[in-house]
Structures are given as structure tokens and as C-alpha cells.
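Let's study my pick:
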Amino acid sequence: MEHPPRGFTLLELLVVILLVGIMATLAMPSFLAFGERNVRSAAVNQLQSTLAFARNTAITQRIEVTVCPTDAERKTCTKQWSGPILVVAGDKQKSLDADDIVRVFPATQRAKITYSRNWKRIKFTPLGHNSGYNGRFFVCPGKAEKGSELVLSQLGRLRAKEQPYDCSSP
């Protein structure tokens, strides 16, 4: 009694490989868009958490709290909002002491964050108000065309705008 041959023919294997290649080619753009949305959401959530933590610390401890991006040594504030961000007790900007640092938030991965006021710091009063004027943060993931815009009010509240931000504009 002869057994039927087992396995696939070369033609069957080539057809399956061709179909998998076509499906992967069609799915790639949506997969890349998913990755960009994920990076943008993570950066927005981290920035919202950072500013909410600083505002809450200012209110609960009844002190001024400064939020600023920092360099690798954590000795001074910079204007690079995509880097590590410090939450510091008091109105600090130039020289930072390790004892004044309340918390360090890590650098944002694969997203560029800019602040419309181009300031080195944001200060929250003991009432939770932001000193100064309304400001806007722009979050652009990698080479994406669309990003997010966050508005920081004078009352210290942060909200995300509904419309996507055009990252290709200067």
C-alpha cells in the first residue's frame, strides 16, 4: 500500500509567500501610523503627568514649585523640553541643588516637545496657578506630520486641543 506524498509543492509555497508579502505591504502604513500615535500619546501623557504632579505638589505643600527641563548633570535648567524634566521645590532656574529636586521625569523617547514661550521653566504658586501667561506645548513624534498641542492656562491647568498640530510648520 502506497502512502500519498506529504508536504507542499514549490508552487503552493510560492503562492503563500506571495500572499503574505502582499498582506504585509498593505498593512505597513497603518502599522507605522499606529506607532506614531503611540509615541505621541506616551509623550502627551508624560507631560500631563509631570505638570499635574508639580501643580499638586505646590498646592498640597503650599510652596512654589518649578518645572524645568534639565541637562544630564541636573545642575541647570535648559530649553530642551524633550529631555529629562525636573520638579523642584522653590523658584529655581539657574543653580539647582540636589536637595531641592522633588522628582525627575525621564526624557521623552522619539518625540520632540517645544514650548511656545521658549522659557526655561514653569513656576506654580501655592494656589496651583502658573506664573506668567498661557503657554502651549507642541508634541511631534519623530518624522510625523501630525502632532498634539497642549495648552497650559494661567490657572495651571493643562488641556489638549482637539485639532491635530501640523508638525511640518516651523
Summary: The first helix runs from residue 10 to 61. The chain has a mean pLDDT of 87. The chain has one helix and nine strands. Helices lie at 10-61.
